[in-house]
Amino acid sequence: MSNQSQLEKLNEEIIQCRKCTRLVAWREEVARVKRKAYADQEYWGKPVPGFGDPNARVVSVGLAPGAHGSNRTGRNFTGDASGAFLYPALYRAGFANQPTATHRADGLALRDLYLTASGRCAPPANKPTPAELDNCQPYLERELDILKPQVIVCLGSIAFARIMRIYSVQDPAWKFGHGALYRMENGTFVLSSYHPSQQNTQTGRLTPAMFDEIWTKAKSLLK
């Protein structure tokens, strides 16, 4: 099977997942009640699958869908402030064909990049539990097995910790930090960035220049 066929099959499984009772209840309540600004829109309200180039050499791993972002639009980093910061950077680096992401049919296409997440359902207060992340981990493992990326970009410490767990990295010297770069025994590079959340971008902890450096570095690491 081609990568595209395998990913499509996997994404069908992800969308149907109901493993975590708390998350199912929350994502569906948010989709039913809605935010006033989006009252006329139909929310996705399901697990959000991965998205991007099925032959990507770079995989970027985030945290989880935003309640009124991806949980509304059904596509990673689409329709919220994090995406409004991420996609312009991807466009500047040549990983995206446009700098905006508003809905699943907006024409956005990723080049040599696949976007996914540690958790697939919007969690209350943006905080999935370790058990909930464990339930999602097999999906991420399968994506990585299909794509076999040369570079993994971890957006945030939780994504970094999840990648360390998947690849059984136990070296205490491998620590999360913005711009931290490591190479695993299989040759795959792991590059870390602060997450493009408003908490980081509005406080100046993560600036556009800092974020651009991450994606320029990711591209330079490709064979």
Describe the structure.
The chain is an alpha/beta fold. The protein has a single domain (3-220), classed as Uracil-DNA Glycosylase, subunit E (3-Layer(aba) Sandwich), CATH 3.40.470.10. 39% of the residues lie in helices and 11% in strands. It has 8 helices and 6 strands. The protein has helices spanning 3-15, 21-33, 70-73, 81-93, 130-147, 157-166, 198-201, 208-220; strands at residues 51-52, 58-62, 113-117, 151-155, 181-183, 189-193. A 6-stranded mixed beta sheet has the order 1-3-2-4-6-5, with helices on both faces. β5 (181-183) and β6 (189-193) form a beta hairpin. α1 (3-15) runs antiparallel to α5 and α4 (81-93) packs across α8 (208-220). The longest helix has 18 residues, at 130-147. It is globular.
Blueprint of the fold:
Layout: H1 3-15, H2 21-33, E1 51-52, E2 58-62, H3 70-73, H4 81-93, E3 113-117, H5 130-147, E4 151-155, H6 157-166, E5 181-183, E6 189-193, H7 198-201, H8 208-220
Parallel strand pairs: 2-3, 2-4, 4-6
Antiparallel strand pairs: 1-3, 5-6
Structure at a glance:
The chain is an alpha/beta fold. 39% of the residues lie in helices and 11% in strands.
List keywords for this structure.
223 residues; alpha/beta; Uracil-DNA Glycosylase, subunit E; 8 helices; 39% helix; globular
- By oligomeric state, this entry counts as single chain
Q: Name the structural class.
A: alpha/beta
The CATH H-level homologous superfamily: Uracil-DNA glycosylase-like domain
Overall pLDDT score: 97
